[in-house]
Design brief:
It is built from 14 helices and eleven strands. By secondary structure, the protein is α/β, with parallel strands linked by helices. Helix 3 packs antiparallel against helix 11 and helix 5 packs across helix 14. The longest helix is centred in the N-terminal third of the chain and has 19 residues. It is globular and about 55 Å long.
């Protein structure tokens, strides 16, 4: 990547020699798209490339797409490191598709909160986020206070909920299910409640950034969404505000894992070490409006209002990733059969 400029002046032979090391040391990193990918580049990739001389290429997708990809290429992965929701990292680990992360190969492992580590170090949580309620205060004068506010007739035709394939989709669904008396084992109440809501939704979104243009054009005024995406959009001048429902937001723990069989194990550890460093974490937190797992990171005032922090973090519902891993295929089947249009 860095050598192309030289190719215009150098001889073809020199050019070929110069590009060889780059090709042999390419790390493929699975990352969520949009602003998330931009922040991965700014906070992690640049410093990593400088330190190692390797190049990183990002492969974009959502957690369920990555899990499917890791399964499809079992043992011969086309990605070396993957950002993925902790519940899906637990799922692929259950299928023996994760490499164990060797903490001895990481200089920053000791600074990371102990609860960040997955079972047998099969993944490590890279940041703390949530699904909460995002709304446009120009159109919504009274801030929403409950998950059930999405059912309020005043928002008819003016809201969007996530498809179950995205994290906010299944999390909002489970929050509604719980409020309607369901459990993680019994989702009947949630299915019944969500059917009309899904039918009336402007879109069942699958990628987080789909909502930006909908809010921009005033097609929606409220949605279960990520405070971090809202924070970034607010910085770009979008009229948005974040409400944490009184029942508790649903905690999100985007993790980072190494698919089993990668030939770039050393390099993968170096990249994870960068992600977990106080520098990498602090940069990502401030740019992405997201909580950190490195204990040395201090959040700014502005950030503390948007990310799960203090009371909103204490009230957040962190669903056991092993339980999600066990049930998500069944939840998805039922959603596709009974909810999706």
């Amino acid at each position: 990547m860095h050598h192309h400029a030289l190719c215009f002046t150098a001889s073809v032979v020199l050019c070929a020699v110069l590009s060889m090391p780059a090709n042999s040391q390419e790390l493929v990193v699975g990352s969520f798209g949009g602003s998330f990918a931009e922040n991965v580049k700014a906070c992690h990739v640049a410093a990593f490339e400088k330190a190692t001389g390797a190049t990183v290429s990002l492969k974009l997708g959502n957690s369920s797409q990555f899990a499917a990809g890791i399964r499809a290429t079992a043992g011969k992965p086309d990605m070396d490191v993957v950002f993925i929701d902790n519940s899906l990292a637990a799922q692929t680990n259950g299928e023996k598709l994760n490499e164990s992360i060797d903490r001895k190969k990481l200089t920053h492992a000791v600074e990371v909160i102990s609860t960040a580590w997955g079972k047998d170090d099969s993944y490590v949580v890279a940041m703390v986020s949530a699904t909460a309620i995002v709304y446009d205060p120009k159109h919504v004068k009274t801030p929403p206070t409950s998950w059930l506010d999405l059912f309020d007739p005043q928002y008819a035709g003016k809201y969007a909920i996530g498809d179950i394939s995205g994290t906010s989709g299944w999390q909002f669904f489970l929050a509604v299910n719980k409020l309607k008396g369901g459990t993680l084992e019994n989702i009947d109440p949630g299915i019944e409640a969500i059917k009309p809501l899904a039918k009336g939704s402007t879109v069942l979104y699958t990628q987080a950034d789909q909502l930006i243009s909908l809010f921009e054009r005033g097609e929606i005024v409220i949605a279960p969404w990520y405070p971090d995406r809202a924070g970034v959009a607010m910085d770009k001048g979008l009229s948005l505000a974040v409400a944490y429902p009184k029942e508790g937001a649903v905690g999100i723990l985007p993790a980072i894992m190494i698919p089993k069989g990668t030939t770039k194990l050393e390099l993968a550890h170096k990249f994870i070490d960068r992600v977990l460093s106080a520098d990498g974490q602090g940069c990502f937190s401030e740019r992405a409006y997201i909580g950190a797992v490195n204990t040395k990171v201090k959040l700014s005032e502005k950030l503390q209002k948007i990310v799960p922090y203090g009371e909103t973090l204490e009230k957040a519902w962190f669903i056991d990733p092993e339980v999600v891993a066990k049930n998500v295929a069944n939840w998805t089947r039922r959603w596709q059969r009974e909810v999706a249009r």
